[in-house]
User: Fold this.
Amino acid sequence: MTVPAPLRFEGVRFAYPNGEFRLRAPDLCVERGEQVALVGPSGCGKSTVVHLAAGILVPQAGRVLTLGEDLAAQPDEARRRLRLERLGLVFQEFELLDYLDALENALVPRLLAGHSPTAADRERAHELLGVLGLDAVATHLPAALSRGERQRVALSRALLTEPELVLADEPTASLDPERAAQVLELLSTQCRARGTALLLVTHDRSALGHFDRVVDLKEELQP
Amino acid sequence: MSGLARLAWRQARHASGRSTLLVAAVAVALFVPLASQVLTLRFDRALRARAASTPLVVGAAGSRFDLTLEALFFRRAERPSVSRELAEELRTDGRALVVPMHLDHTVRQRPLVGTSPEYFEQRGLTCAEGSLPLFVGDLTLGARAAEALGVGVGDRVFSDPPKLYDLSQPAAMELLVVGVLRPSGTPDDGVAFADLRTAWALDGHLHGHAAAEELAAGDPDLVIGTAEGRVALSGALIEERRFEADQRERFHYHGDEASLPLSAILLFPADEEARTILKARINGRRTEQALRPEQVVEDLLAVVFRVKALLDRIAVLLGLSTAALVSLVAALSLRVRARELRTLDLLGAPRGFVARLVLLELGLVLALGAALAGAGAALVGALVPDLVTLL
Assistant:
């Protein structure tokens, strides 16, 4: 029995309800453990591709197969569960909860699942924070962290559930080049160490060396 | 603690200023009606229970509220007295058990009730230790009074002089505590009881000194003169200020004992007919009045409940303004937190999780506010034990 690719786009068409933006996504396949960079000019639909892959948006045509699941065929609750339990999501603006400290932010997927974090969860979160160099700030609130530290906390949150696929939407866009390189390095290393597939949206072409493959949305969509 | 509860608690703690404001607003909005309800209920129960156990109150004509509150709750009032003669007349009539009351004095700021042994029988009061005040100078304390004064059987306490700097008034007298009553949960717990003769002695009507012959033998100057069996004593004579066992018999009254004053008379008629007859007969006079405490209390409660109705209206306004404040703060908070709540959605929070989170946060605020209001109302209930005394 063949294991399905973590992410596959097949003939996907999407338009926002107001009709202002239409996307004809390229047929795309991210294999297990593969790291793919998605590049393209602003407004070409890179973030929309990530949202489709995460099941936040549902295509009007074609299929998005995330971890083997046809998301369009799934009810909203199932798509949410998949996102929470099996995907890792990283956003441009970190999206940390400002009333939780770094450790608790890393544990947010467990809290959202309605559970009280177990000792094993805490151990795992501590381990991730340690690997990402955040040991000393584990009890700090986001307001007390630097931007680079905040994004690393967001990475630990994305990796807590040991996801099979990490979707990162311009995670380094708001960081200075040095910190951006650090974060990309960490993300790439952590995903590779766990065999986690990674689809990362970026407009920073200097960072593309980290990736197995680069998909340029503009080129892919050219007639 | 579930993930949802943990997030709600952390958020409430993080926004402590906002949470405190909301909790305080909710607490105040709930405290006003709760406290007024607690107090009026207690007031209502205390008044009604006491009134129901007292069929008729007789006293000098005047404010019926003052007479009722003084006779039932020992609230002091500047009212004219009635004479002992009235009590004797009612006793002779035989239609009711007559309980005279003298309520003009205090012992260390607590009412001193001069009465007869029938009072204790009618009120169902019994001694936890010691005995009832059977002799002049005896004092039996209500349970709360004994505790507050820190005295027990065998101790001596001074009465309060009526006017401290008026030398023409009788001085304080030393009274002997002979008993402490069992708690009854009524105003009787907070007062001191004495025999009527003790109260009259405190008035200065009764006084005690050795016989004239004995005085003359000790100091001839104390006897100014004698004529037709009457003896004139010097003003230098120092009267007894203590009621020692061997001196009790020395206390006497030189006038007509029928004219000795009483603050009120409680009547316990044999039946409804006797009550009606007695009430009509006494009210036929101009100088005295007979009241059914239940009726007076009803009128008093009507006033109290009008005040409570006003408080209730204020509470409704307070509640509405608090609800508006909570809604406004919640709406603004949701706007400020829109991005955070969107993040929870993006990360895959179950459907309705965000709504449940916000509701739980609000519920937490309401629960804390309600708990504070409840504690405050309970505190008010505990710290205001006898609202009747505030009237």
